[in-house]
Amino acid sequence: MLLLANSEAYPGFETSIDLLKKGEHGLDAMVAGIAHVERDVRVRSVGFGGWPNMLGRMEFDAGVMDGSTREVGSVGAVPDTLPVAALARKVMQTLPHVMLTGDGARRFATETGFSIDETLYEDSKRVWWERLEKELGPEGIKQFPDVPLAPLSKTITDPERVRDTTVFLCSDARQGIHTATSTSGWAWKYPGRLGDSPIPGAGFYADSRYGAAACTHTGEMTMRCSTARTVVLALKLGYSLGDAIKLAVEELAELTEGFLAGVVIHAIDAKGNHEVVNFRCPGDIAYWYWDETMSAPEKRAAKTV
Ligand code: ASP
């Protein structure tokens, strides 16, 4: 058994370990851990502590993949709902669909017993409004929200608020390799924008025969390169874990037009190896790791390429 997650995972990582040790299905273990991350306001990029879209509304993305069956559930741009990784799991278990978005996802949440929550944290609201006032100026703010939002989209690159996700990957006691994601997406994103966290193949992918991968940071990069799927397919083709990630990084590095920014790839293979690689993200990137030989999880540093 092993569990790998990015640095935001600390509020829920040990919950997931405990459930894995009890022999729970890995997706249930990870979704339970992620629910703690989603509720914790110290995590400023996921769930309640995250940042709203340009209209000041929280829209959450999440995805889960069962590597043994290759079943996927995902939700995108869901308003007023937590926990959303659990909602993605519910989509997988209940519907003949893979993905629900927006109002349809909220409707499904109500049907399946998720309460309607206030998900905009007071401090996020304050920062969003101050930024909006600065961007629009005294005249523009009087017109809000009846203003064109597209010119504001440059603010989504705000280096202080940027973006992140929580990603969990595990190998469970049932020989399953699975992955789950959750995020509030980019701060000040255009309403309706989906990142890669709900997109199978881009933000996450798992196949118990070979391994799993999940990405954080710029979904606009991984969606163009199917990054998570690239890693797992390369494992299937016989690449080592390091070479599989290298291949995915080469694909990202070949993008030269459009919006370009960094990506962190987290990956595990069916032999028990793991690797976390930072491709062009500023600063030091850390991750959490635990396997059954360890008495406690460790925070480790990602490799930079
Ligand atoms: N990958 C996510 C997205 O593009 C956010 C992040 O991990 O930074 O929405």
From TrEMBL:
It holds the Pfam family Asparaginase_2. GO terms for molecular function: hydrolase activity, acting on carbon-nitrogen (but not peptide) bonds, in linear amides. It comes from Paradevosia shaoguanensis. The record marks 164-165 as: Cleavage. This is Isoaspartyl peptidase/L-asparaginase. Substrate binds at residues 193-196, 216-219. GO terms for cellular component: cytoplasm. The active site is at residue 165. InterPro entries: Ntn_hydrolases_N, Peptidase_T2.
